[in-house]
Design a protein that fits this description.
Number of strands: 13
Largest sheet: 7 strands, mixed
Strand order of the largest sheet: 2-8-7-6-5-3-4
Distance between the termini: 31 Å
Number of domains: 2
Bound molecules: pyridoxal-5'-phosphate
Strand content: 15-25%
Radius of gyration: 21 Å
Structural class: alpha/beta
Length: 344
Amino acid sequence: MIFDLRSDTVTKPCKAMLDAMVIAEVGDDVFNEDPTILKLEAKLAQLFGKEAALFVPSGTMANQISIKVHTQPMDEIILDKNAHIYYYETAGYAFHSGVSVKLVDGKNGIITANDVLANIQAPLDWLPKTSLVCLENTHNKGGGACYELDNLKEIRKVCIENNLKLHIDGARIWNALVAKKYSPFDIGQQCDSISVCFSKGLGAPVGSAIIGDFSFIKKARRVRKAFGGGMRQVGILGAACIYAIDNNLQKLELDHQHANEIANCLREKDWVKSILPVETNMIIFEVDEQKTSVLQILDLLKEKNILAVQFGPKQIRLVFHLDIKAEMIPILKSKMDEIIISKQ
Ligand SMILES: *Cc1c(COP(=O)(O)O)cnc(C)c1O
């Protein structure tokens, strides 16, 4: 038995999802006539209370298209210093959109309305022009931390007052919806656009989407084509995404419980120095370097068929997902108990 906790992207489609893919009705989505994709896009627009949606191959493309549509070259984006858009998208914001970033020192990735206000550039010819705020919910490097709805409302207000667009990187918004019990509609009302992902916790093999108003999505379609993301009979993937929303959204609660249980187990280990608050499906813990090292712990885990990744100089990340079943958790706990660091 392999415990692959490297990411929630490692899930494989289940039989029922594959069956849904096989019978999907398809058409040419560049011509905007794939019935399954049209159904998925309409479903997403309705869920989030927006006018339209656009299916794209990846979360990175969803974010990059959104930035391209919301900004002009020489603009600046406000975002947390550990945001996926800054950290893991190969400086795509500079490459595709010619914009700079103003990094905020958020708390586990969560920033506030005051942070936004304090980082808006004055309208001077020699300064970048602040035009967009990007929030990440849940926050990956923040250990799966979620925004409170009130915080989002305050940020939204500052954005409106200062003529800034607000984009949410919602690759894991589904986890936030389940953990915080706000609705997708609530979230949709607090932003101009949101990107969502189906290939993480929801368990689809491929796919993300952007959701926004008609004019935003119309421009986004053109940018998607320019970025090489126009696809043809892609309803086979759309069917997996529809299946994922209908069947796997509520199952995320279980991933959150599993993360909590294992975090409780790790808290008792002398090789764990600290753990970020566990709000959703991931655990980021710091290894006690007086006793061991990240590489030693990763090796010891691997010997027990537990796969994890280094996430910072002293940190390890564990992510829980659909393919980590309830019956695997007690076994995982006992394997963790077997990891003993002998005194050097
Ligand atoms: C995974 C992820 C993305 C995009 O991922 P892709 O691998 O490009 O689909 C974007 N934002 C966050 C917060 C993510 O965790």
